[in-house]
Write a structure and sequence with these properties.
It is built from 12 helices and 14 strands. With 351 residues, it is an alpha/beta fold. The radius of gyration is 20 Å and the shape is globular. The N and C termini lie far apart (47 Å).
């Protein structure tokens, strides 16, 4: 159907590099008017702040809609559909809509939303892109002991030893038209082979697989796939096709506020310590560094931690350090607070 606004759904596990890919896409949009919908798991909207603070044309706050504190695959009717109506009713509507899901979202329920009559006639899913952390997959982070798990499967193939992380990994790849194997600068040839093998095990026939560093791919590759994914649901199998619930009870998020932080190095070391001692998947947020008038961004996946300064603190903005931590259900918030607070210069708080 002609005249429908194309929508690209970007999915991928926590810390795979979805936001980096989106930033690169916007930076090289070449005048295309792109609206961005960002979904976060947890109440602190870090990804939206990272994008709006990047200084790229098209990253302005009015071009970005955030759906926070809820998984988009579970709140389609309440949150996503009204958001789509708002974008499609704008005059003129955007040339393209990009939806960045949370790392805990299943993409297929979101694609199904485009079969709703009020959306189907006005928008189409141009493509589903799954961003995969090549280094994490190469290290077997989707199973506590991959070799033992494989041995158990061989001994008794009727056993189901999937973990929530493995299920998410599979679901995101099974729904994808294109898989971006990101962070290739962090793997050697053997690691690349392991990561590609793990992805290809679940790759749909005809789906593409591309390597990337820092999500730097030509928008011409990412946009204009023309998949019409809402009309191709049967080729995108899901563990939840028979109505089984998508459980988020296996995950927990909490927000920690530290006040002023002594140095980027102290914060990075505290984040590594936290990841070593507690079942934490992701840490992200912003820090106020003593004596620095510019905001520090922290991104951590397990023990891999990155920081960079992104922009000055704005007039009227209170400099502060706030982070969202995503980990296993039952995460010890007090312990997490005490570990991350080792970098703080002031008494911290947790919510």
């Amino acid at each position: 159907m002609q005249g429908r606004v194309p929508v690209t759904v970007i999915t991928g596990f926590l810390g795979a590099g979805k936001t980096s890919l989106v930033r690169h896409l916007l930076e090289h949009a070449n005048g295309r008017r792109i609206a961005l919908v960002i979904n976060e798991f947890g109440e602190l909207g870090v990804d939206r702040e990272i994008v709006t603070g990047c200084g790229i044309a098209g990253c302005e706050a009015e071009s970005i809609i955030e759906l926070a504190n809820g998984c988009i695959c579970c709140t389609v009717a309440d949150d996503f559909l009204p958001t789509m109506r708002r974008l499609l009713d704008s005059s003129p509507p955007p040339d393209h809509i990009v939806v960045e899901t949370s790392g805990l979202a299943l993409p297929k329920p979101l694609v199904k939303a485009f079969t709703w009559p009020e959306i189907r006639t006005r928008a189409t899913v141009d493509g589903v892109i799954a961003v995969i952390d090549a280094a994490a997959v190469a290290d077997g982070l989707f199973a506590a002991d991959p070799r033992a798990l494989e041995r158990l499967r061989q001994e008794d193939p009727s056993l189901d030893h999937e973990t929530p992380l493995e299920e998410l990994f599979e679901e995101q790849i099974l729904c994808a038209d294109l898989v971006v194997l990101n962070k290739m600068d962090r793997v050697d040839e053997a690691g690349r082979t392991r990561a590609e093998t793990a992805v290809r095990r679940h790759l749909r026939p005809g789906a593409g697989l591309l390597p990337a560093r820092h999500g730097a791919l030509d928008p011409a590759v990412l946009l204009g796939i023309g998949a019409g994914a809402e009309d191709d649901l049967d080729s995108r199998p899901s563990h939840h096709d028979q109505g089984a619930p998508h459980e988020h009870d296996a995950f927990q998020s909490l927000v920690i506020e530290l006040g002023t932080v002594g140095s980027p190095e102290a914060l990075m070391e505290a984040a590594r310590l936290l990841a070593r001692e507690l079942p934490v998947y992701r840490i992200k947020g912003f820090a106020h560094i003593t004596g620095r008038p510019i905001r520090l961004v922290l991104q951590a996946v397990g023990a891999r931690v990155e920081t960079y300064f992104d922009r000055p603190w704005q007039p009227g903005e209170t400099p502060r350090s706030r982070f969202v931590i995503i980990g296993e259900a039952g995460l010890d918030g007090r312990r997490a607070l005490s570990l991350l607070a080792r970098a703080a210069c002031e008494p911290p708080a947790v919510s």
